[in-house]
Amino acid sequence: MKKILLTGALFLVLSPFAVQAQVAQKITCESLKKEIAQKIIKNGVSQTDFRLDLVPSDQVTEKNTTSSGKVVGHCDHGKQKIVYIRLSVSDKKSQE
């Protein structure tokens, strides 16, 4: 009887943590990318001055991110990274 009560009490205590974990997993890469972009814009960087790219984690190394951008986040259980790239004047013209 004590085991049943203990199991039930444990279930009630731990269930909110399980719900939080499920909610955290539902954040998509695109929504996280938008959140990061908003934080960058709030810090005074114009939306036309940077780009955020989703890159598979196995394609991101220290050498290729330092020259082209900076990893500012990861998503999809670490399978993808969000890379911040500061745009120059020529990069802005090529995007138009």
Number of extended strands: 3
The residue-averaged pLDDT reads: 77
Please state how the strands of the largest beta sheet are arranged side by side: 1-3-2
How would a textbook summarize the main sheet?
Answer: 3 strands, antiparallel
Question: Which residues sit in consecutive blocks of at least 5 with pLDDT less than 50?
Answer: none
Rg of Cα set: 20 Å
Amount of beta strand: 15-25%
Overall structural class, as computed from helix and strand content, comes to: alpha+beta
Percent of residues in helices? 40-55%
- The helix/strand series, from N terminus to C terminus, equals HHEHEEH
How far from one another are the termini? 70 Å
Number of contiguous helices: 4
Shape: elongated
What's the topology here?
Elements: H1 2-25, H2 29-42, E1 50-56, H3 62-68, E2 70-75, E3 80-86, H4 89-95
Antiparallel strand pairs: 1-3, 2-3
Describe it.
Strands 1-3-2 form a three-stranded antiparallel β-sheet. The protein is α+β, with helices and mostly antiparallel strands and 96 residues long. Helix content is 54%, strand content 21%. The mean pLDDT is 77. It has a domain at 28-90. The N and C termini lie far apart (70 Å).
For this entry, give a set of tags.
96 residues; alpha+beta; 3-stranded antiparallel sheet; 3 strands; 21% strand; DUF1161; Membrane protein; signal
Short description:
Keywords: Signal. The chain has 96 residues and is an alpha+beta fold. Helices cover 54% and strands 21% of the residues.
